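Suppose a colleague, Dr. K., hands you the sequence of a protein chain of 293 amino acids and asks what its three-dimensional shape might be. Before reaching for any lab equipment, you can write down a predicted structure in token form. Begin with the sequence itself:
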Amino acid sequence: MPIHRRENQYRGVNAHLHSYFQNSGDWEGFHDKHITHLSDMLDTLLPANYYAINESSLQISGYDLDKDSDVRIRTRADIAVYQSEPSQTPFGGAATFAPTATLPVAETIILDDDFEFQSVVIYQVQEGDRRIPVTRIELLSPGNKPPQAHYRQYVARRAKTLESGIRLVELDYLHQSRSPIDILPSYPHREQKAYPYCILVSDPRPTLQEGLTKIYGMNVDDPIPTISVPLAGADTVTVDFGEVYNQTFGSNRYYSMIVVDYEQEPPRFDTYSEADQARIRQRMTAVAAAQQA
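The predicted structure, expressed as tokens, is then:
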């Protein structure tokens, strides 16, 4: 008998749902909904002299799973953060998670002159209509991760963003393909210290060589972290990415009441590590016990 729950039963990324997305081609709807929810949350959290809007992403979409090829070439809307005037004091927030690793920003960049770059879309607003880049948030899509066709365009545009001094937050909730950041261990290849999910926060200030990329790795059933996101100057905003993820999961009964069945193993269960397979089974057992109770 199928087991469905409207609320996310995982403590973090729902392995059942994201396995389905990576094997069905239905990622775009979740992507757009999650970006909207994240933008709405930021609107309530940001200091008064900032605002967040959805803009054209660094990414290209979409991907046809049946044909194993890309079917469209267009940008996706992700999030841009703007500052309307300089801050007088830093803006912080609640307690945040510690990163699982930290790298120099320069080591996460792959430069390739064969690709053209799109214009930068995150700006800081000052006098009049003048806008200066502040922070970009990207939710990675399957077609922009290796080995898919648009992977190299994404990393090229990513490099241009960081070279411009813009802060970049990348949410990677897709375990079946390796990160576009080659220096990170590959989960699909079972490399040591690899995670199925991660969030990268890159701050290229004061220079690419001195700036840092903080890596927040998550195993299956780990909480999605609360992170201090860098803004202009010393400003930051604390974002509970787990809260907004659960909002997106519970906002559509298609995800929770049709797609996700805790009675069945996720599609392509073998793509998870043995440790994560055990975590998934433990979660399924716990949900089944709650159903019986």
